[in-house]
Amino acid sequence: MSEARSLNLYHDTQLVGSLFDLHPLKFVYAADWLTQPFAKPIAPALSLDRQEHAGEAVEAYFENLLPEANLRDLLKIKYQVSTLFGLLAAVGGDTASAYTLLPAGESPQPPKYQATTWEAIAQSLRPTEVSLAPESQNEGTRISLAGAQFKKSLLLMPDGTPALPLGNAPSSHILKPNIGNLEGVWASALNEVFMMKLARAIGLETAEIEYQLVAKSALIKRYDRMFNEKGALLRLHQLDLCQLDGKPSTIKYESDGGPSLARCRHLLQTHGVPAMDIKRLIEWVFFNLFIGNHDSHAKNLSIYYPPQGGARLAPFYDLLSTSLYPGLSRTFAFKIGGENIPGKIEISHIETMARELGFKPKYVLKIVNTIAASLLACIDAVTTDLSPIASPGTERSLLERLNQHITGNTRRLQARWGI
Fold it and tell me: Per the database record, which ranges form the HipA-like C-terminal domain (predicted)?
């Protein structure tokens, strides 16, 4: 093993362990980490009762830290690497977790940032806006917004100006421009801002988001980062539900063998999230059904560990009305009582789903009714609030069409379900 290439995993400046470029990949906890009273496993399947781990559990955890689909392919070309280890070595410095990966021999350094402007960022985005080639699927293209969409990591200064993290410096915000080169998909950044603000307006906890006018992008504040009393940016640990379940990102859809809603509920419950977060899971499912977000798979759910302690279902993210775009999938990411075609979901399916999740149907139907009524009560105000920042033409048209599309879809489902 001494001859294998390795990457060191750090929590702040504390060495957690090392990842070795073997077949299969091997992860070894550092002896000092195992003696720390605050030491925790990086993932449930990589427990502290064994110092060495290898195989599927290791690959599932680390693979889920990487971008997906075409973006991963582009990174392979850019960095001339072809393996999971090679990609982690190239882009694993600031992952969605409390940890950072560094090449063997390197140690964490004080974070450094390069000042920039929104105009410079907008210019840099023009040739590199997301390029996602459609996949050949009968029911339409499925896109993974969690990992396949281009993102730019930023630090937002107190005065609102951006800075670029250098090396493995942590970021405070993520910038997501419009998806490009996917036929029929337009103004996706404003679509996401609309959906996230609509969710927050009806009381769902979401990541904070704004529309960055110069860059024409969604600007999202990271919930897994926080400033301490000294002004240093700290990383909070998080795990998406594919990582919790030991599934690679290629198995995130239930139809492909990924976690079902019942499995998601079990994962949340067994990892100690409070009961109110199980209710939030149900709210998330039906909000996505009403807005037509058919890409709401298990990787779009995470748990994180805030400073006050205990696991929590993370604020919701990657909300988009995908059904607005005719070329995308017509199939919901999860089965509701055995049915994943939204137009075929009946109240009997919801009642079956409730029982599968361990709830009384009346309880779940009350949540469904509240989400629908709240959405219809708030959607016009959200549309009005966003109208001043939407440019005439494409963006104004998007807001109007989203309002009509979601209102119509919600009312149709209400009528079908008699709520």
Answer: 143-375
